Structure formats: C-alpha cells, structure tokens
Give the backbone structure.
Amino acid sequence: MEELDLVILGAERLYDGLVTNNLYGTFEFSDFPMEDENLGAHFEKHIPAITVHKYLTAYAEHFGLLEKVRLGAKVVAAELTDENSWIISFEVKDVIAELKVFTKKMIVATGPTSTPHLPSMSGRKDFIGHVFHSGELPRRTKELKYAKKVVVVGGNKSAADAVYMNASSEQMDMLRPISFLGPAFDHDAYPTIRHLLHNTKIGRRFVRAFYSFFDKKMVKVGGYNDHEETKKLIPRSSLFWSGTSVGLFNHPEHIFALAKKGLIHVHNKDITSLGGHRVHLADGTYLEADVIICATGWDRNITLKVTPDSMSEQVLGLSSAVSSDLQVKVADAEIKRRYPGLIAQPAASLAKAQERKQVSYALYRGAIPPSLITARNIAYQGMGSSNRATLVAEIQALWITAYLDGKLSVELPDSKEAEWQALLQSRFYRWRSPNGMGFKGVDLVLELLPFIDTLLRDLGLNPSRKGGLREFYELYSKADYKGIVQEWIKKEYPSG
C-alpha cells in the first residue's frame, strides 16, 4: 500500500452533516452486519459518514486486523526482484531510517482517488481569498466561518454537500431484471434477453423510451422546474450515461429549498480567471468570492512508485494512452459492433470532452496487470466505482486471493489475450458511462450483477443465488452472499 491506514474513510475527512448515498443495509460486508445501534445507523435512512468510520473500525477490531496494520507508515516504493518477489520500502513517523519488508505477493489497495484534482485557473495568485479542494472541508472551518461569499466549483455529490454546508437518489437492493436495461461487458445467465434489448432496433427503442420516461419523472419528482435557479440544474443528458456519478438528495433540508430562499445561485459557465475577490466567467460576468471550494474530483493516478524502470505504467495496466492509439481504435470499433446503443454519445462540456479522450486502467477483471497475469504476484483492489462498494470489495478480495494462490476454477488467458480483454473492458466503460467514472475504470450500476456473476463463476461458485423464477422477482441483497468465503473454502478444502 502507498499509505497504511486503519479505515477507508478516515476521521480527518469527516465533518458535521456529511452523509453517504447509501441507505441502511447497503453499505456493509455480508459477514458483519451494521446492526449495532451505537454506530448511529437507522433503518430506511442514509448512513452518516461517521457511522461508516465507526463500522469499518469495528470490523477491523472484530476480525483482528488491527495487529496486522502498521499505522503511521507511508510506502515509498515497491521493487520487483529477479525472483518475482517484492521489496516494499516504507517510512514510519519519527524513525529516520527507511524500513523494508519482503513479500512474494502484493495487493495495491490505495485506489485511484488519493490525489485531489484542482483545476488550473488563471490569476489564482492574484485572488485575495482561499482556494481549496472539497476534501479539505473539515480543516477549513475557520476560513468558512468568516466567509460572506463562497463559490463552489463542480456539480457532483461533494459539490452539493459543500453548498449545503455553507448555505444552510436512493440506493436500493438490486432486482436482476432491472440490470437488463443496461448493456453489460461481463456475462450473466441471460444473454438472449440482453441481445433482444441491446442488439435489436425494437429493443433499443424500448430502452430509450424507458429512460426518457425515467428522466422526465426524475425532473418532476425532484422539483427541478419549481424555481428558476433549480431549472439550471436539470441534467443535460439521460441518466443512462451517468454511471456512479449520480448524487442523491439526502440533506436534512432539501437543497432546492436553499435556492428558493436566495441562498444558492447556479451558474452554468466556465471560469476564465480569478483576481482580487472576483471569479470571472466565460460570459463576461463575475462573482464576488472570499472562498472557492473546488468539488472537482480526484486525479486518476496511482502514486506508488514501482521499480525497476521496466515496470512501466503500461506493464502495470495503468497506462494513460490516448484514444488515437491504433489498438484503442480497434477496441472501440469492437465495442460499437457489440453494443450499437452506445454509438450515439451525449454532448460533452469542454472538461468532460478532455476526460473522454483518456484511456482508463486496463486491468484484467479490473484487478490484474495483463502482462503479469502468469506471475501471480500483484493485484489491484478497488480500482473501479460501484454503488455497492462493500459487496464488490468483498467478492473481488476473494477473487484476488484465489488468483494469487492459483485457486481459480477457470484457466486464465495468456498475457496477450488478457491485455485485449482488459482493453475491451476499459473501452466499454468509457462508452457506457461517459458522464460518470467510465474514463477512469470499471463503473458499476446496472452492470453490477453481471460483474459479480463473472467473478463467482471464476471462483467456481454459483452466481444465481436465488435460483429459478426467484431470479426475476426477488431483490438481490447482501444476504444472498452471506457466507460466500466459507462456501469457497468448503469447495476448495472439502475435508476441512
């Protein structure tokens, strides 16, 4: 790991009022329910961020992970030896000497969101005020306390949280037939249904009609047309293209109510420059500001240094090739052939257009560098996005464990085929989720069940957890995967 920490949501990033998009029961591991009332989770309510912090800490304590974690350690580099093992160099606070640990296998679980993305803004040095990323909100209470005018740059969940903090959609279990309404790169047991919906004209017409109805319903129920300011927030393209970038209204007071009170003003304009206490916009107008909060996401980079030099980003499956590369063009042509409903892409802003030119991580099954697939000595955990993060993390962790130990129930492809499959998967999500996180990697919403099904088949486990007709009318939840680790262990070691 680049930084070893106890939990994935550290206390230093929490602040009053921060709430997740997850409802109670949708952010927990199958072997450790979030049932302790002391954690602060309540049935049918969104989970506060502090509850997630407490839950993950309790999980680590319950399973004895604390004594296996080196807190306060920062990984400096990982070196691959001639014996295909790793030398991990790391630093510990108040220890002068650099420390090393030797291991045969390494899992990089730092994720792709470690480095805040701050947009380049002309005149920033001339701005008389404070400019910081939304990730710094907990440490910037003093500046915000005395600010009279705050400009929030961005339109995502963190932007809404920042707006609500300064001005003072729900995630459910998955019904398998709903997943049919989106094309999927991975396979489930229903290829005929997916073919009819996404590879025939009448099927694609039905899918477009469904999303058109849903988009209009969302605008109506959300109250977007109730005020001139909120009308500016009406999505410019269908929810179909948004992936996991969708945010939900989960604040104590509806955020649109703040707009109706005149506390929020929406500007759909690019920032051209800063100066004094002003933020200059592309239409020639300007905004007065004491503080600028950039809710602009995170850079898509893994800052862990891997040596020797032969361990390039391309070898590690982390290359950021541009879409003009010949192999990428060939992959795009194949994606368009398989999924014709993705050809007509939604319009893009200047910033989004730049994102779409990037090529996301090309990792086999979203975890393994294709060129190193036979080495079984490295894996990446948590490189994608999902609206059911804990479920994906749990199944993927089991898959990675089996892969590293040579215990998968399927024969792995060679490095060349693995590279092609990884690139196809990468390009699929670029085309499937252009307004979401598809330019970074796997972006799972309706694609969630097929992705998990594929991992379970690789593990030699039954992906159809319901069975029979129940697959079509019963909701999939964490309970369907309870005991999945023990199920796999029993399969691999039947004698105990």
